[in-house]
Amino acid sequence: MSTGRVHRIAIFAAAIAMSQGLEIVIFSPARRASRKLLERITEFVRLLGFDDRIMEFNQEQLRVRSLSGKTSLIRSFPSKVSVSSNIFVGYTNPYPHEPVYTREHSQKGKTHHGFLGGQ
After folding, report:
1. Which terminal residue of the chain has fewer beta carbons within 10 Å of its beta carbon, N or C?
2. pLDDT given for residue 44 in this prediction
3. Rounded distance, CA 27 to CA 89, Å?
4. Distance CA 67, CA 4 (A)
5. How many independent structural domains does the chain possess?
């Protein structure tokens, strides 16, 4: 992520979290970018003078008390997370006309896309 994009997202997330009680989930390209984005959001909350409203801050989430008195939760995760197809054992697709996509990693480290289909 470029620095400008990180700052725009961080300012927006900080402003909306401080104005209303809500939950925001942000997916970043990588783990490092995810942590940096959450740090930037925290910096902007502090820059606004709301240090005392930060309730919790760690590598994955920031919880603040908004100006409305409600709690806002901002979570930031890396989007490159693989899902094993083993979790689909015994799974019945409630929408048989729509395939359920999975990602599996081969032993050589290449990603193979497949789906557990309908009927």
Report:
1. C
2. 94
3. 27
4. 27
5. 2
* Cα 66–Cα 25–Cα 64 angle in degrees, nearest 5: 20
Per residue in 60-94, pLDDT (tens digit) is 899 999 999 999 999 998 886 555 555 545 555 55
- Going by C-alpha positions, the residue among 89, 82, 79 that lies closest to residue 106 is 82
Interatomic CA distance for residues 33 and 76, integer angstroms: 9
Strand, coil or helix: what is 61? strand
The pTM (predicted TM-score) of the whole model is 0.64
Same domain, 49 and 18: yes
Q: Domain limits at 108? A: 85-116
Q: Which amino acid is at 48?
A: L
Locate all alpha helices (DSSP H) within 1-119, ordered by sequence: 3-19, 31-47
